[in-house]
Structure formats: C-alpha cells, structure tokens
C-alpha cells in the first residue's frame, strides 16, 4: 500500500456481535484517496478504488474481483457523485450496467437501485452519540452485482472509521 496518510478504515462483519470479520477496507491519501477491499482471514485484495474529490465534485475509478465467478475476472468501473442541498446521488457504472446509490440529507439511509429502479441493497446508519465509530447495517436483496460494489460505493461516500454488518436477503 502507498505510504500516504491513512484515511477511513472499515471492518465488515457478518453479524452485529462483531465475531465474524468478512472484509476490511483500508484507505490512504496519496494525494488522492486509494482504497483496498480485502477478504478475511486470507487478506486477499478483491477491490481497489482511486478517487478524486474537489469540494462537492467526486469521481472515482475502481476494479473488483468477482469472487462468485469461477473465471477469475476483474471488472472495471466508475463512481460519480451528484449532490444537491437535500440529497446525494452516486452513479456507479460496472461492465456497462448502472447502479444508483441515493441518500436524502440527514436520513442515514443509502439505497442502491438498478436501471429498472428495483431496490438492490440498502445501508442504514446506526446513530450513537457516545461513539466515534460510525456503524451501518447492510441488507442485500439481489445477487445481480458482487457485494463488493456496495462496500466500495459506501467507502467512497464515507471516509470515517466505520463498521458494517452484512445481512444478505438474496
């Protein structure tokens, strides 16, 4: 990993008890933000993201390894943010497919939709005023896309110390 300044780190668990670590996101600034998504316990890199941000303008490129596939294939894509006063919207492109990640201001919910506007996944922020750690619950409703795409998209939005709990409803 680059020798740049450390940014937000994410742990992704399969449960709220934080007993089964599935993935870890490691993030650095050097000079732009670079993110690696690793599986656990073997620490294999299955995703990378490089971002550029200037004010509210945000753009990133990424590559993900589809661990569901037997072809050992990496896919490239991009993420772009469109923001207004009342919501953030991210456009995620992957292999000529599009996902939209939407968040209304102060809602703490991030929803992912496909081109047909079907709900694919959702993150819900857990608020705890006594903790510096931001925690999210993740529910995935479809297997149209690799799980790593949702994790990298949230990491692109949130660069704080974070824990994510996965609940797959596929």
TrEMBL record:
Pfam families recorded: LOR
Protein name, as recorded: Uncharacterized protein
């Amino acid at each position: 990993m680059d020798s740049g300044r450390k940014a937000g780190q994410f742990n992704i668990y399969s449960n709220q008890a934080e007993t089964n670590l599935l993935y870890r996101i490691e993030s650095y600034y050097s000079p732009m933000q670079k993110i690696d998504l690793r599986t656990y316990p073997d620490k294999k890199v299955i995703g990378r993201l490089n971002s550029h941000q200037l004010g509210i303008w945000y753009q990133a490129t990424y590559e993900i390894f589809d661990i569901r596939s037997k072809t050992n294939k990496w896919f490239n894509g991009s993420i772009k943010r469109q923001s207004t006063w009342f919501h953030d919207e991210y456009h995620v492109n992957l292999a000529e497919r599009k996902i939209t990640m939407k968040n209304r201001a102060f809602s703490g919910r991030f929803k992912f939709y496909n081109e047909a506007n079907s709900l694919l996944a959702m993150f819900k922020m857990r608020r705890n005023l006594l903790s510096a750690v931001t925690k999210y619950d993740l529910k995935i409703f479809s297997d149209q896309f690799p799980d790593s795409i949702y994790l990298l998209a949230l990491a692109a939005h949130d660069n704080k110390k974070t824990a994510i709990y996965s609940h797959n409803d596929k």
